[in-house]
Amino acid sequence: MEYRYLGKSGFKISEITYGNWVTAGSQIENERAIASVHAALDVGITTFDTADVYANTKAETVLGEALKGQRRQSLEIFTKVFGPTGPKGHNDVGLSRKHIMESIDGSLERLGTDYVDLYQAHRFDHFTPLEETMQAFADLVRTGKVLYVGVSEWTAQQLRDGAALAKELGFQLISNQPQYSMLWRVIEGEVVPASEELGISQVVWSPIAQGVLTGKYRPGEQPPEGSRATDENGGKNFIQRWMQDDVLERVQELKPIADELDLSLAQLAVAWTLQNDNVATAIIGASRPEQVTENAKASGVSIPAELMERIDGVLGDAVISDPARTEDSSPKQREA
């Protein structure tokens, strides 16, 4: 496992992060989720990403249980705040001072720790003054409950505005967590250039496009039983955009490139995201420990420029790169 600095800071993380979105607390049983965390530790992954909204707080509890007994100083634990949690009342959502201050205490208790290494604004809040949000984060940094602050799925301008306020308040934004993969490249046009300018790294999620880039979904065939595409608890909804024969055929055409590098398609997909210098880490999820072990082998892989060009040629217009899609990710109305 190799390690990279996160943003313009002295904080290093593993370039593969274990994430428990969709899986822990909902899609798979806790025992298998805990075994997957232990597999991550075994291959040198030290960075773990979750959020209070995942499985309505249950995912944090599972992660806390899985990390129990580990040396805290050797781990980097990330979580997020924004989405509706608990009974989902009118103040149980967003980036208000009230929600942030109450949410961090709940997350710390569930994770079994006195602090989180990175606390992230899970989306941009169009209904709370940005000054209020950033002041709350600044106060959490000063109390020691939060060491570093990041965001998720913010646009280039939102990053600039947030970074400027953070600087005024005596801390810095060091990360953004966007969706990013061979098929979904919407951050490349605006978010990445702004982040490079501001000293912000990307912590990317879904590097294998919810499993599509593993090649297990084949054109003209039903999805494998038990796969994310058949999961009615949420996984199926996220993968639908890629379940088209044209896309699935192109993914199959990537296999010779993966073979040249002695990689699986999943390893190729994860390694591809790490070729972007602004990406500090790629988040992988897993429903089985073996998936963690295999996908972690993408760490340290260098893909030659000519193969990167061949990947672009194979995927062609299946790639989504419109920068406006980032703005679409933040809700324009309250969920609660």
TrEMBL record:
It comes from the Bacteria. InterPro entries: AKR, K_chnl_volt-dep_bsu_KCNAB-rel, NAD(P)_OxRdtase_dom_sf, NADP_OxRdtase_dom. The keyword Nucleotide-binding does not apply. The keyword Oxidoreductase applies. Residues 215-236, 316-336 are annotated as: Disordered. Residues 15-314 form the NADP-dependent oxidoreductase domain. Keywords: NADP, Oxidoreductase. Residues 324-336 have a biased composition (Basic and acidic residues). Belongs to the shaker potassium channel beta subunit family. This is Aldo/keto reductase family protein. It comes from Amnibacterium endophyticum.
